[in-house]
Structure formats: structure tokens, C-alpha cells
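Loading example: each entry is read as two labelled lines plus one structure line.
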Amino acid sequence: MSALHELSAVELRRKVAGREVSAEEVTRAHLDRLRAVEPRIDAYLLVLEERALERARALDRSLAAGQPAPALAGVPVAVKDVLDIEGLPTTCGSRILEGYRPPFTATAVQRLEAAGAIVIGKTNMDEFAMGSSTENSAYKKTKNPWDPSRVPGGSSGGSAAAVAAGTVPLALGSDTGGSIRQPAALCGVVGLKPTYGRVSRYGLVAFASSLDQVGVLSRTVEDAALALSVIAGPDPLDSTSAPEPVPDFSSALAAGVEGTRIGVPWRFLEAGVDEGLLTRFREALAALEGAGARIVDVDLPHLPHAIATYYIVATAEASSNLARYDGVRYGLRAPNPANLAHLYGETRDRGFGPEVKRRIILGTFVLSSGYYDAYYLRAQKVRTLIRRDFERAFEHCDVVATPTSPVPAFRFGEKTADPLQMYLADVFTVPANLGGLPGLSLPCGLADGLPVGFQMLSRRFDEPALARIGAACESLNGVPAGPPIESNGRD
Amino acid sequence: MPKVTVETVDHVARLARLSLTDEERTLFARQLDQVLEYAESIQALDLEGAEPMSHALATGAFRADEPRDGLARERVLEAAPDAKDGLFRVPRVLGG
């Protein structure tokens, strides 16, 4: 029999709903697992042991009193520290928010908790979600559970490592340019970035508002679909949340791939992709083809410009969003400022790490007088061309498939000296954010002992296509075994 | 000829209210020049007929203009490093 921490969210919920096991036992089992593996993974910035146990007991009382079990009854979840929970610290991986306790709760978290999920902690991340390795956290280095000398990816590296290490079956993340899908790929778990607007951004600390989206990490496609059904839907507190009705994503899971069309931009995959990783990708496609899917070649001619476009648009928006960290309203304030200008400059110099400063400088530059037209305005137009590329491609296919990342998990420090090299690792993930499209990354085997991610993008609001083909892909490959970490907690 | 010099970084840092160390100024100038050199690829594209896209999804959603309660002022000020009498306190703005 599997240990509780090895079960999926769906299985745990079924056991709790059937009173086979209490929510408190489930929570304790995951907290035990967390204590055993966390010293070697460092996925969490905050563990909420007492709060979690209290809430689990309250749920158990309500179930004992005959109340119906909600959709995620007793399922332990982790929340990326970019999402607010009232009264608890939100750091966003930054010194500038040290000590900040928000007076509100993010809608996505509120919906998870209302559905009976038990938040057991907040996870590490690249500062302000800027990074692809979680090395930009001001607090700790999260290790990849598959190899502690390697990064977990980023920026939701803590959430990905937490799920991979079995401390939770489900975690929330945010994805501005791949920050859910890429760490999911590098840690061998499932990562789902919904359509822009599908999930409310209320209570999500803003990085690039036209690209940011809240999503989930899990070990099975079914769990991701279930969690999305809970957190999706319009929210009066976020005017960019979409009014689209929320389908039951789980109902698409069993449909199989017979008759679906999977587009692959082969021309775009020609260079720069790790060989072993590309082999796994081709095998996954072949398996889907064998199960009845049709593989078609699609052309997305403007994709080679996606990274440049993304890093102009995202940094421009970030430079504006991060103007609010001024030492006046929350978080850090530089001591003994001589005047207001000094307060701003010193607070921001002390509070922000190098990557955040670099992006503020780049974003301010592309918006500044004399450069706005050549960079920001131009990038916004290229964004339209990229969106149109996808619209044309989706006339010929239901999903566009690529590897999630061109490389498997890299070593600590391997890319930090050269920011451009780090940015280039986002080549397959940023197009979804530019187009506002949903994307799913799922494990498709190992290359040299490291997980490989298979990514699919679909039309806006067509997460059901991702769930359908994703579930088929998973059943062809099987849910992969977890990483080879020991669970006794003794080093 | 680099696009981004230390002087450019200084100018932009002033606009962004960022104090930088000498080391950061030189490093950022070099790194941002590399990034912009890479981003040159978009300069040659034909953008005729491409509208600037400022948002992934234009919902055009306007809510009804009705008054409603926001966050309580005391709750918001609790997060401030320095607040007094219902206001944020800041150092002197002029002179000093």
C-alpha cells in the first residue's frame, strides 16, 4: 500500500470524503514527509504546521457532523510565496518585502481553502518571479529533488520541488514566461498555466500584468484538472479575469487522442535543443501517434523573436509594477534617509537583488524617451504577429507541442553569470504568455537521469484539449516514479 | 558601439529611483548591452498592419461605478514602516 504522501489529490480526497482517513492524519503525514526531506530540498519559506492542523481538524469536525466533502477535502497544498494569505508573511523571495503581512487573501488561495484544501506552507521562488532557476531568491537555494547539485527551475522552483519530493500532491504557482511549466519540467511533475484571465490575479504580487497567470503543479494531469476547476472563473476583484464559463476540466480526461491533431514547429526545434531530451520528445509524440493522434508540422515564423519580445514587454511592465516598492507603504525602509529621494534610492538598492535591478533598468530603458518606439512599441507589435502565428497554426491542429525547456535541470551557478543565457532557456515557454494561451508541461521520461518536460499549448480557453491529450500521454507513459530521495530524514 | 553605456545606466537608474554601486553600473551596462544586441532581431521585421498588443485578452470589462468598501485604512497602514495619525510618514521632501 502506498504511503499517504504518495497519493494523488484525487485519491486523498476520496479517502477523506469516505472517512477512511482523517484530514488531520493526511496533514500530519505530509508534515512528517516535509520534515524528513525539507533539509535536503529547501522548498519552503514558511511552514504552517499549526494553522494547517487546526484547519484539518475543523474539516474533520464538519465531515463528522455530516457536512458534504468539498472538492479538495483534506488535500494538502503548498502556495508559492507570490500569493497573499491574510496575516501571513508574503516575501516574494525579496528582501524588500521582509516583514510584510498582507491584509487580504489571494482569490486562488481563498478558493482552494473554501474547497477544503489545507495549506501547509509557502514556497521559495526567484525574487518577484524573475528567473528560471530559483537562484534569485533572497532567502535560500531550492535543490532539485532529482539531483541536489542542480536547480529546480524557476521561478516556481519551490512549488515544483515540493510536489516532486512528495510533501504535497498539489501546489500553486504563477507563470509569466514559463515559471510554472519550466520548473515542473525540470522536477518531473505536471505544470499547468491556464489561459490568461482564467484564474483571478487578485492577491498575486504583480510582475508583468499582461502576462502573469496563476496555475497549478501536481503529479497527475487529473489533479491539475481538478485544482483548475476549483480556482478558475471570474472574480469581481480582478477586472482582467475572464467571464468565460468554467467547464469541468476533469470530464475531458478520458476522451483519448483518437482524431486529435498535434502540431509540431519542427523548424523551430532544429537547433539548441539537448539531444537526449529531443529523443524523449519524439518518443512521446510517436506514442501519441500510435494511440490515434495525427502529428502535423506547423510553421510559427515569428517564434524566433519571442524571447526578445518577451524580455522587452515583461521588463517594461515590471519596471512600472515595481515602482510601488518605495519604502513608504510596506516592507523594507532604508534607515536614516536624508530626504525622500534618498529614501527611495537606498531602500530599492538594499531591497532588490541583482536580477530585479537588471530588469528594472532594462524595462525603464525600453520605455524611456527616445527608445520607446524602437523597443517597447515595436515589441508590442511583434507580440501581435506571434499571436497571429498561433491563430493560423490552430487552424491545422488542436495543440502545439514542443519540449518545455531546451535543456534539463542545470547546475547551480551554470547560467547566473550570463543573464542572456538564462533568458534563452525560456524559448519554448514565453510564447504562451505573449499569446495569452494555456500551456501544460508533463513528464515524458528521463534523459541522463534528469526529467524531461513535454509541453502543449492550445487555443485560449481550451484547457480541456490539454487535459485530454495530457491525460492520454500520461496513461501511455504511466505516472513516473518520483525522484530517488530517501525519506528517513537522517543524513 | 555599445547601445548601453555606464552613462545610460546612470540616467535610467535615476528615472527608476535606484541607487546602484559602481560595480553594478559597469556590470549592468555590459549585460544590458548584450541583451539589447540580441533583441536587435526585431528591428528588421515588417510590422505593417500589426497593431500594438498591450494585453493578452481585451475583455473590455467595466464594472458598475458603484461605491463599495475598500480595505480599512488602519489595516493598510499596519504594513507601513512608519505611519502616524492615519498617514504614511516620510522624510523631508524639500531641501535637506
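Helices of chain B lie at 6-15, 22-39, 73-77.
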